[in-house]
Amino acid sequence: MSGRWNDGHRFIDRVAIVTGASGVLGGASARALAREGAKVALSYRSGADLAQQAVQEIEAAGGIAYAAALDITDPGSVQAFVDETVARFGGVDVLVNAAGRIDAADAVRFRDIDPAAWEALFEVDVKGTFLMCRAVVPHMDARGGGAIVNFTSTYGNGVNQENMVNSCAVQYCAAKGALRGFTTALARDLAPRIRVNAVSPGPIEANWDADWDIPAEHVEEAIAMTPLKRMGVPEEIAETVLFLASDGGGYITGQMVLADGGWTFTG
Q1: Residue 260: how many CA atoms within 13 Å on its side-chain side?
Q2: Cα 141 from chain centroid?
Q3: Residue 235 belongs to what H/E stretch?
């Protein structure tokens, strides 16, 4: 088998779509793919300034990228974004489904779940991922194959039921569990031409208070029970994404890679 190994140029002449590129993990993944030669289409639903900043940084480093608004829950918006990417860059080789709902309504105990919030979470995280995969698969087939990397998460471990970092909220775990099942089944369905994997980050450095209403002491508790005694950084997750999307990960499909500092196995 011939392949493009880890020489720092693993994605030259390849086209990547990264959803949720205004977020810390999507943005880090887009920058990393561009750094290794990919032409990158970055999508955002909000945070246009952050996505455009990522494009400017990529272009300043000699890379090729563009950013555009995308509603991943709307089939028409998804198709238009993918069509524009193909028109600009000639195809799609890599899809990174980093978009996900961030809302404090999803970080609550079971008895406090709002059914509307449950539906909104599944609409973005599960349906949105499905729609993106459905739209890119024909283009990957036309190029002879491709790689899809979904974002799932860790799940339901921890010792403090009131700590949503530590234990994870029920609806959040349910949505990410659906993505784990989707990833495995889709990998079998699309083999052998298209590989499908997922990365499952543990707690990552972010604005937990503003995004999720998580108090600082709960974040500190989660760090204390993590064997590596720290949160992960976005660049570490991006490197995992690159490996799964690269030729070096070419014999891996249908897998969930835990990038969580050992957090899950301590649960």
Answers
A1: 25
A2: 22
A3: helix 234-245
Q: Tell whether domain 15-259 is in CATH 1.10.10.10.
A: no
Q: Is 250 helix (H, G, I), strand (E, B) or coil?
A: coil
Nearest to residue 191, comparing CAs of 152, 245, 141, 151? 141
**Enclosing H/E stretch for 151:** strand 146-151
Query: b or e along 58-79 (b: 16 or more beta carbons within 10 Å of the residue's beta carbon)?
Result: beeeebbbbbbebbbbeeebbe
| Catalytic residue numbers, as ranges | 172
For the chain, what are the domain ranges? 15-259
Tens place of pLDDT per residue across the chain (267 aa): 456 767 778 999 999 999 999 999 999 999 999 999 999 999 999 889 999 999 999 999 999 999 999 999 999 999 999 999 999 999 999 999 999 988 889 888 899 999 999 999 999 999 999 999 999 999 999 999 999 999 998 765 667 777 767 667 889 889 999 999 999 999 999 999 999 999 999 888 876 666 667 788 888 888 888 889 998 899 999 999 999 999 999 999 999 999 988 877 655
Q: Report the candidate in 147, 239, 157, 153 with the shortest Cα–Cα distance to residue 193.
A: 147
73 closest CA partner among 117, 119, 123: 123
What single DSSP character describes residue 126? I
What is this structure's pTM? 0.93
